């Protein structure tokens, strides 16, 4: 079932620190796929993604605001698919501070301390949310 | 041609992959990849996609041909992105299924230290069987391992 908001059951998955995958597209139509370390729950209709490096992803969403994110739920044997639209970038404030703290924790757990560093919290509007079951 | 170091990475170490496409309105879509093979010419890759991630895939590829596939070794985070052009699609063959099984085992082994309490069957089930093989010509390869070099183009080499 496709939703237009983030349901409560997605929160523990987002907060588990499991990496997610993001797909964006440049204005000239080239898709770009990257692994992201954090999807932050802002509220029912907004999520924030970490901007750590000046990357193709960051350029793409500023040219073309649509983004696709897939969050893996290993325990739930499923994946959450989010269609998002870039709204704004924040470099201070409660969302930035909370994401910065989470990034530090993820970096420490994954041996990436000193490499993962939050430059900005990019805030996206949720366009749609869908849960896909893994199938064997 | 895919460089030897990256060939070895794909064949021996990488354990998770994801593909990206876009539709005619430039809306991006993602497609999980359960396995892959580098074809004999070393210039094309065939990616194996599970059924739940096939909606919109062929429609987009046949309309514009644009495809990006990111392949990672977890937990080292060594990662490369392959950008290219759709060549064709087909059903999986028995030797493709063996590749998916081999990569599933590799991935589950990497998850085991993190999910020590999760039964083996449950971890295996997380990597879906594939239902569609997508062949694409590799035109560009980018380093995506997290760090300051992320985004550097390896093939063709970035101009200095």
Overview of this structure, please?
The complex is a heterodimer of chains A (136) and B (160). Chain A has 136 residues and is α+β, with helices and mostly antiparallel strands. Helix content of chain A is 21%, strand content 44%. Chain A has helices at residues 11-14, 56-63, 94-109; strands at 2-3, 20-25, 31-36, 39-43, 46-51, 66-73, 78-90, 120-133. In chain A, strands 1, 2, 3, 4, 5, 6, 7 and 8 form an 8-stranded antiparallel β-sheet that branches. Chain B is an alpha+beta fold and 160 residues long. Chain B has a single domain (4-147), classed as Roll (Pnp Oxidase, Chain A), CATH 2.30.110.10. Helix content of chain B is 27%, strand content 39%. In chain B, strand 3 and strand 4 form a beta hairpin. The A-B interface holds A 19, 21-25, 27, 29-35, 37, 52-56, 64, 66-70, 72, 74-75, 77, 79, 81, 83, 110-112, 115-116, 132-136 and B 18-22, 26-30, 32, 50-53, 64, 66-70, 72, 74-75, 77, 79, 81, 83, 111, 115, 118, 122-129, 142, 144, 146-148, 150-151.
Features:
heterodimer; A: 136 residues; alpha+beta; 8-stranded antiparallel β-sheet; 3 helices; 21% helix; 44% strand; B: 160 residues; Pnp Oxidase, Chain A; 8 strands
What is the topology?
The complex is a heterodimer of chains A (136) and B (160).
Chain A: E1 2-3, H1 11-14, E2 20-25, E3 31-36, E4 39-43, E5 46-51, H2 56-63, E6 66-73, E7 78-90, H3 94-109, E8 120-133
Antiparallel strand pairs in A: 1-8, 2-3, 2-6, 4-5, 5-8, 6-7, 7-8
Chain B: H1 4-13, E1 16-22, E2 28-33, E3 35-38, E4 44-50, H2 57-64, E5 66-73, E6 78-90, H3 94-111, H4 120-126, E7 130-143, E8 153-155
CATH topology annotation of chain B = Pnp Oxidase, Chain A
Number of domains of chain A: 1
Helix content of chain A: 10-25%
- Contiguous uncertain segments of 5+ residues of chain A: none
Q: How much helix, percentage-wise, in residues of chain B? A: 25-40%
Number of strands of chain A: 8
Structural class category of chain B: alpha+beta
Estimate the strand proportion of chain A.
Answer: 35-45%
Order of SSEs of chain B: HEEEEHEEHHEE
């Amino acid at each position: 079932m496709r939703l237009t908001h983030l349901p409560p059951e997605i929160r523990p998955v987002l907060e588990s620190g499991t990496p997610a995958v993001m797909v964006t597209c440049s204005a000239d139509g080239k898709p770009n796929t990257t692994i992201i370390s954090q999807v932050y729950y802002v509220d029912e209709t907004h999520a924030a993604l970490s901007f750590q490096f000046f990357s193709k992803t960051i350029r793409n969403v500023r040219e073309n605001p649509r983004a696709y994110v897939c969050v893996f739920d290993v325990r739930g044997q499923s994946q959450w698919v989010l269609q998002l639209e870039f709204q704004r970038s924040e470099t201070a404030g409660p969302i930035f501070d909370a994401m910065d703290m989470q990034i530090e924790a993820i970096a420490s757990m994954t041996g990436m301390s000193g490499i993962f560093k939050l430059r900005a919290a990019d805030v996206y509007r949720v366009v749609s949310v869908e849960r896909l079951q893994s199938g064997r | 041609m895919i460089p030897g170091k990256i060939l070895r990475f794909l064949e021996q170490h990488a354990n998770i992959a994801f593909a990206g496409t876009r539709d005619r309105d430039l809306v991006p879509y993602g497609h999980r990849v359960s396995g892959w093979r580098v074809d004999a010419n070393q210039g094309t890759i065939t990616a194996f996609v599970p059924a739940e991630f096939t909606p919109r895939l062929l429609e987009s590829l046949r309309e514009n041909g644009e495809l990006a596939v990111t392949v990672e070794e977890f937990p080292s985070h060594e990662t490369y992105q392959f950008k290219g052009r759709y060549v064709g699609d087909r059903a999986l063959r028995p030797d493709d299924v063996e590749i998916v099984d081999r990569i599933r085992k590799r991935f589950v082994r990497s998850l085991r230290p993190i999910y020590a309490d999760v039964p083996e069957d449950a971890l295996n089930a997380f990597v879906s069987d594939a239902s569609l093989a997508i062949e694409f010509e590799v035109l560009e390869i980018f380093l995506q391992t997290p760090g300051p070099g992320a985004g550097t183009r390896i093939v063709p080499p970035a101009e200095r």
